[in-house]
Amino acid sequence: MATIATYNELAAEVLNALPERVVRYRASDLVITYCNWSWAADEGLEPDEVVGHRLDEYLSEDGQVGLARQLARLGPDCPVAADDVPRADLAKPGRWIAWIDRYLPTGEIIAVGRDVTERHRLELALIDSEGRFRALADNSSDMVFRVLLRPQPHFDYLSPSVERITGFPVAYFVDDFARFIDLMDHRSASMLQRALNGGPMLERFDVHGRRANGEPQITEVHLTAIPGGFEGVGLDVTDRRALEADLTTRALHDPLTGLANRHLLDEVLERGLARAERQGTVLALIFVDIDDFKSINDQYSHHAGDAVLREFARRLEAASRRADVVARVGGDEFVVVYEPTANGHDNFLARIERALAPPIEVAPSTVLHCTASLGRVDTLTCPATATALLTAADAAMYQAKRAHHAAARSAAE
């Protein structure tokens, strides 16, 4: 069974294989904490030579303007932001990079940069002349289009690249514009329909649809209003959005169990405590520790230990309600955050104990009887801060563990 270190190694391999530039840096001082091979290679360096330096050392003046703009937008209330202006690349003059950034609860930012030189030149060409527009659009790897609204919506121009992106030939959409909308999900179709009806038009949005073979597809669309319609560029960002989602998941979830990790737990507690104070409700926390977990690893192997951890995670989630949050905060430690009902907090604790009690089969013919110690606190009996709640719940858990050990000694005697 893969360990956390193995997952991190796999993630690094995936990021290093990407053509996009990926860099992680601290928002407070811009110091780089990670970059993939693509980012470092463009600077003529190894990743280890980049880590520890400030990000702005590697940016052009235009790139520094973009960085300042992104930092002003990013934060807990705006975790994802795309810089809609391509930025000049300091390492390779004449190249342009489009950046999208993700703010992490750790105070770091993950930035993914894509070479959009071709698209940027195309956008300049759209302004320059119609002849140049068609010459570049016909050879663009991105989907370039112009839609006219009269007498009914139709494509006045659609670049040949649409077939590579969607799997359908140009004629399929030129003959019937409705086919283009039929491929989209409801939200994307509604956004485009508003533009067709003369309503407010977003300059940039993602269209979720499907390819000719039925596979899901995400196209980043940039629209510009023109007399009688609009024109724009569509970029296939399916893989990029999957990468962004994966980066977000890895940043906030435990890779072994899929539960929330400590970073996400801190955010949940902060928001839960603020809501409890605002609404006058109670927030409760249960700290769960597997008894004698080290002996499981020592006697049965780490594969068995991983199986126990995953099963504990599954049982805790099954015993919890949809609104509750279950997190893994240590090797064999879990936390459940919930809002107790008027008469249900003791029942919930008992429900978790019952859920964790059955034996666990870690391998054929190998069944383990694992026990756990639980400590519960809430904001009625504990200071309403995340640190105080976790400390008190940890102490309550150790008190329960001592009681278990005492009972076991008495039974042995």
Detailed description of the structure:
This protein has 413 residues and is α+β, with helices and mostly antiparallel strands. The protein has 3 domains: 4-115, Beta-Lactamase, CATH 3.30.450.20; 118-239, 2-Layer Sandwich (Beta-Lactamase); 253-412, Reverse transcriptase/Diguanylate cyclase domain (Alpha-Beta Plaits). It is 44% helix and 24% strand. It has helices at 4-17, 37-42, 47-50, 61-73, 117-128, 130-137, 161-166, 170-175, 178-182, 186-196, 238-252, 262-279, 293-300, 302-319, 345-356, 386-412; strands at 21-26, 32-35, 80-82, 87-88, 96-103, 108-115, 143-148, 154-158, 204-210, 216-226, 229-236, 284-290, 325-328, 333-338, 360-363, 366-368, 372-378. Strands 1, 2, 3, 4, 5 and 6 form a 6-stranded antiparallel sheet that branches. The chain has a 5-stranded antiparallel sheet with strand order 8-7-11-10-9, with helices on both faces. The longest helix is centred in the C-terminal third of the chain and has 27 residues, at 386-412. The radius of gyration is 27 Å and the shape is elongated. 27% of the residues are buried.
Kindly state the number of beta strands: 17
Overall pLDDT confidence? 84
User: Percentage of helical residues?
Assistant: 40-55%
CATH superfamily of the largest domain: Reverse transcriptase/Diguanylate cyclase domain
Structural class: alpha+beta
Unreliably modeled segments: none
| Beta-strand fraction estimate | 15-25%
CATH architecture title of the largest domain? 2-Layer Sandwich
Shape: elongated
**Count of separate DSSP helical elements:** 16
Report Rg.
27 Å
Distance between the termini: 39 Å
Output the CATH topology of the largest domain: Alpha-Beta Plaits
The structural domain count equals 3
